[in-house]
Amino acid sequence: MRTAPPPDVLQAIALAEAEAKKAKKDPRRSHKGAAALATPVANAKVRERKAAPATAPPKFSKAARRFYNENIKEHEPQRLAKVLAAAGVASRRTCEELIFQGKVTVNGSVCTAPQTKVDISKDSIYVNGNRISKKLPPKLYFAVNKPKGYICSCGEPKSIISLFDDYLKGWNKIQPGVPKPRLFTVGRLDVATSGLIIITNDGEFAQKLSHPSSNIMKEYVVTIDGPVHRNHLIAISEGTKIDGVKCIPDLVEPLDVQSNTKRTRIRIAVHEGRNHEVRELVQNAGLEVYALKRVRIGRFRLSPDLGIGKFVELKQTDLKSLEGKK
Ligand code: URA
């Protein structure tokens, strides 16, 4: 599979972009503008500029790379398993199993190699006898305010994905002819944890964001039923071993005492992303977690306006914030 855009395509895009920029800044540089130059000297200069050999290879701007990814790479033949996952058939791994089991045909022949390159818009693909649409669903990203008691796996009655039931039921009205997206969570929250979780149908994005190497900071508010002393905060700050790895939080901060309940809240930020990490840190300090809520991922904060069980679609700028970028 190609991992980088072909240099000739990027070069062409970069040169076209550079030309367009120059023409915008100085209309006389565009072909029409050059013809309008009055003096022969000026025309000679234009010819000189055109004839000058490129001294350095063009740098591929972010915009050029994005243009390539969105308009060219997406439409190049891709691995069969990846295409099936993007089409919403199942997870990439399940799609690979379906292919190995001989349940997938491409242009009338059984295909048992997940790495086979296919073009969804041209090839005729069937899974278990059902034809796969020639269109891919759009990539979608949502922030959800997870209620306590919901689980992150799909297909269970109290799955967090069931919060999208009405949205998906109305899909064919909003997007007629476009296959339904297969939504899943980016990473996990314990069943008893509430707050911010991301839902998408973009497997690559989900993997990038949830991989421990991304080191993305996540912030939680922990409620303790009772007082929290300095020694507790120190013990939490010192960290604990989880799965043999020492996890040290990036931030431990006491919040207000809730006067009506005598409950105490602590803000804790971590970047390891280990299972039950925050609960382990708190319990290791001799405290019992009464409630746990995630309030931030990267630079993206859960909006206080987003009600429990509600979701909001994310914009490109929100996706950058999730990755901790500006
Ligand atoms: N840490 C936990 O202990 N639980 C979660 O759900 C998330 C982080």
Automatic annotation (TrEMBL):
<dbReference type="GO" id="GO:0001522">
    <property type="term" value="P:pseudouridine synthesis"/>
</dbReference>
<dbReference type="GO" id="GO:0000488">
    <property type="term" value="P:maturation of LSU-rRNA from tetracistronic rRNA transcript (SSU-rRNA, LSU-rRNA, 4.5S-rRNA, 5S-rRNA)"/>
</dbReference>
<dbReference type="InterPro" id="IPR020094">
    <property type="entry name" value="TruA/RsuA/RluB/E/F_N"/>
</dbReference>
<dbReference type="InterPro" id="IPR036986">
    <property type="entry name" value="S4_RNA-bd_sf"/>
</dbReference>
<comment type="similarity">
    <text>Belongs to the pseudouridine synthase RsuA family.</text>
</comment>
<feature type="domain" description="RNA-binding S4">
    <location>
        <begin position="78"/>
        <end position="137"/>
    </location>
</feature>
<feature type="region of interest" description="Disordered">
    <location>
        <begin position="19"/>
        <end position="59"/>
    </location>
</feature>
<dbReference type="GO" id="GO:0009507">
    <property type="term" value="C:chloroplast"/>
</dbReference>
<dbReference type="GO" id="GO:0032544">
    <property type="term" value="P:plastid translation"/>
</dbReference>
<dbReference type="GO" id="GO:0009982">
    <property type="term" value="F:pseudouridine synthase activity"/>
</dbReference>
<dbReference type="InterPro" id="IPR042092">
    <property type="entry name" value="PsdUridine_s_RsuA/RluB/E/F_cat"/>
</dbReference>
<dbReference type="InterPro" id="IPR002942">
    <property type="entry name" value="S4_RNA-bd"/>
</dbReference>
<dbReference type="GO" id="GO:0000489">
    <property type="term" value="P:maturation of SSU-rRNA from tetracistronic rRNA transcript (SSU-rRNA, LSU-rRNA, 4.5S-rRNA, 5S-rRNA)"/>
</dbReference>
<dbReference type="InterPro" id="IPR020103">
    <property type="entry name" value="PsdUridine_synth_cat_dom_sf"/>
</dbReference>
<dbReference type="InterPro" id="IPR050343">
    <property type="entry name" value="RsuA_PseudoU_synthase"/>
</dbReference>
<keyword id="KW-0694">RNA-binding</keyword>
<dbReference type="InterPro" id="IPR018496">
    <property type="entry name" value="PsdUridine_synth_RsuA/RluB_CS"/>
</dbReference>
<protein>
    <recommendedName>
        <fullName>RNA-binding S4 domain-containing protein</fullName>
    </recommendedName>
</protein>
<dbReference type="Pfam" id="PF01479">
    <property type="entry name" value="S4"/>
</dbReference>
<dbReference type="Pfam" id="PF00849">
    <property type="entry name" value="PseudoU_synth_2"/>
</dbReference>
<keyword id="KW-0413">Isomerase</keyword>
<feature type="compositionally biased region" description="Basic residues">
    <location>
        <begin position="22"/>
        <end position="32"/>
    </location>
</feature>
<dbReference type="InterPro" id="IPR000748">
    <property type="entry name" value="PsdUridine_synth_RsuA/RluB/E/F"/>
</dbReference>
<dbReference type="InterPro" id="IPR006145">
    <property type="entry name" value="PsdUridine_synth_RsuA/RluA"/>
</dbReference>
<dbReference type="GO" id="GO:0003723">
    <property type="term" value="F:RNA binding"/>
</dbReference>
